[in-house]
Amino acid sequence: MALTIGGRTFSPPDQQMTAAQDNYLMGYLYRVGVMEIVSDPRLGSDEKNKQLLINIMLSGDASNILAALVTETGKTWTMKDANANAAMFGDIVDEQEKALMRNALVGFVAAFFRSGEVSSPTSPKFSAEEEEVPATANEEAATSGILV
């Protein structure tokens, strides 16, 4: 689905994202709590979409997330362009374009997770146990100080 905003046409990713685009998007999604929403088994599809929109809009990062998800037709996604597009999206005053961006944002984010583009959200698990590091010939055993 093409999206025309500010007289320019944008498309969601139709192939796998580059690492840079994926990192840009995932950073914003984690920051606004989207991962918790999409992985919550208690929420139905409609409730997830509602919560996605609320969290994204209240975060102030809606324009950045949309810019992470779309690429101007005929161009390759770059962080520089995404930042410029996010600024442009944030400056839109036309009510129809604002509604179009909100609807597209939720649809694109939901499709992103349904497409299998990203594996299930995971987070590192930590425990209070320290991992023991084996001693070398000249040292005593020590702990790494890294919690695992």
Descriptive notes:
With 148 residues, the protein is α+β, with helices and mostly antiparallel strands. The protein has one domain. The chain is 49% helix and 13% strand. It has helices at 19-31, 34-38, 45-59, 62-69, 79-90, 95-114; strands spanning 3-5, 8-11, 71-72, 130-133, 142-147. It has a 3-stranded antiparallel sheet with strand order 1-2-3. Strands 4-5 form a two-stranded antiparallel sheet. A hairpin with an 8-residue loop joins strand 4 (130-133) and strand 5 (142-147). Helix 1 packs antiparallel against helix 4 (62-69) and helix 4 crosses helix 6. It is globular, with a radius of gyration of 20 Å. It starts with a strand and ends with a strand. Mean pLDDT is 79; it is low at 117-136 and 138-148.
- Spatial ordering of strands, largest sheet: 1-2-3
Distance between the termini: 43 Å
Radius of gyration, whole Å:
20 Å
- Any idea what the shape is? globular
Mean pLDDT score: 79
β-strand amount: 5-15%
Q: Approximately how much helix is present in the residues?
A: 40-55%
Q: What profile does the largest beta sheet have?
A: 3 strands, antiparallel
Total strand count, please? 5
